[in-house]
Amino acid sequence: MLPTVAEVLDLPSVAAGRPLTTASPAALARPVRWVHVSEVPDIGSLLSGGELLLTTGIALPDDPAVLARYVDELADVGASALVVELGRRYTALPAALLRAARRRDLPLVALQRPVRFVDVTQAVHSHIVEAQFAQLQRSDTVHAAFTALTVAGASPADVLARVAELAGCPVVLENRAHQVILDEPAGVPRTVLLDGWETRSRRAAWTGTTGTGPEGWLVTPVMARGETWGRLVAVTDGTDMAYRTVVLERGATALAVGRLLERDRETLERHAHRSLLSDIVEQRWAFPAEIASRVTAAGLPVAGRSLVAAVVHWPDAPARGTVAGESPAARALERDRAEGVGLAARLCRLPALVGSVGHGEVGILAALDGVTGANLEQTLHRLADALRAQPLAGARPLIGVGSVVPGLAEARRSFQEASQAAQAAVGDPRGLPFYRLVDVRLRGLLHLLREDPRLQAFVERELAPLLTAHDADALLAALQALLARGGNKTAAAAAAHLSRPAFYARLARAERLLGLDLDAPESRLSLHVALLARSAQQPV
């Protein structure tokens, strides 16, 4: 980082001249790119900006107008400061020189004692070279950091965290709609960082290059294949902008390369929604206003709105933590299903966060405005139709819906209810468009109690003789068909695609093994509960 005028004046070789300064604090903060010694009055045309000019004033004119023009020329080319050594020409700086310097806010310094100009230039130039070398080292560090992230296939969140760490300020990744995809607050409360983000972001002009914006923002586009799909915003204090520009641009490049090389990964929008939903379900936030700021900045306004959670469950999805569940194919299928649910929500014009929530499920958190809230049932039906119209591989998905809740603090309960309803609906013959807990009734209760050892023991007591039989699957299927049809053997045989004699023979064998009369209502009820409980205990 280049030294400022104030820092140059503090150098021992300059301080020995007992400098008297006429300048504003902002002017003293100007960087000094070079030190130049000249006694030529028309030196302005030979400068290129950023120079600190040393002179004894011996060749300066007496005419106040010419002195003013001399200062104007220095200010016009962007000189950092004018330093005049007293003694050879002046015992005090001319009033015309002082007036002109104040008018143009050009730092004017009077050295009350002689100094060796060569010592000053050597000291400042050494400082500048050291600063340039340090800047080069910082740039190399930035380059190495983002190259390592790119080679390692780092996630967008990892890249953003590195940008914030190196830049030393909050960083936000947003899409073209000014919705926050990811943010790294760097110690700033999110309620402050993200408050009214979309409105504030629109004040920063969207250009194809790195630029500045309001609030000390530094903004750079994130591009891939010639398309600008987002931008990085560093909320700075306005200092060290050259270095922070390098950091921001290298971060944007790393994000773009990641997007090009990893096209099979989930979209950034889905990634952001998944992270938000995970934090909501696990209630990982310091206080409700923080998570509300993040959700609103992501494009889902929640202030003054009720919320409802839904969970889309695929019974054939392998469980997380298993070998099958962690395979690349399972991950790809999970991403495709999450994208399909997101598309279905957009087709229904349902404002929502959509992302994978594990266990073969995709979560939806919807904000209900006046229209959506009044027509929630119709909206859910449209969502179910749109989802089932998606060409998603695998078993037919089940949709669970939780209770409508007043805010994000209660959204976890809505998600729990939705997940329980969807999982409990597995095997339900009605095939409803969506399920609430009230729809799954006994199935829902048994699903909640499925890990209770007492219920597991009950299932074993009731069904053990059948479960250990060599034809267990056939006997259980026959019993299930009978109980599902209220004991009507003729209807059960037809549903099982068996002749009545064959079906009756299987029931008779089941009765002998169980030691029960299947015509007894209490026996049928107990066995039906046991079968439902066993279904709830099976991996889904």
| Main sheet summary | 5 strands, mixed
How do the strands line up in the largest sheet? 1-5-4-3-2
- The coarse silhouette is rod-shaped
Estimate the mean pLDDT confidence. Answer: 85
By CATH, the superfamily of the largest domain comes out as Reverse transcriptase/Diguanylate cyclase domain
Weakly predicted, low-confidence segments:
none
Corresponding CATH architecture of the largest domain: 2-Layer Sandwich
Name of the CATH class of the largest domain: Alpha Beta
Give the termini separation.
60 Å
| CATH topology call of the largest domain | Alpha-Beta Plaits
Oligomeric grouping of the chains: single chain
Count of strand segments: 14
Describe this entry's structure for a reader.
- The protein is an alpha+beta fold and 540 residues long.
- It has four domains: 5-125, HprK N-terminal domain-like (Udp-n-acetylmuramoylalanyl-d-glutamate--2,6- Diaminopimelate Ligase, Chain: A, domain 1, 3-Layer(aba) Sandwich), CATH 3.40.1390; 153-263, Dynein light chain 2a, cytoplasmic (Beta-Lactamase, 2-Layer Sandwich); 298-439, Reverse transcriptase/Diguanylate cyclase domain (Alpha-Beta Plaits, 2-Layer Sandwich), CATH 3.30.70; 453-537, PucR C-terminal helix-turn-helix domain (Arc Repressor Mutant, subunit A, Orthogonal Bundle), CATH 1.10.10.
- The chain is built from 22 helices and 14 strands.
- The strands form three sheets. A five-stranded mixed beta sheet has the order 1-5-4-3-2.
- A hairpin with a 2-residue loop joins β12 and β13.
- α13 packs across α15, α19 (472-484) crosses α21 (500-514) and α20 crosses α21.
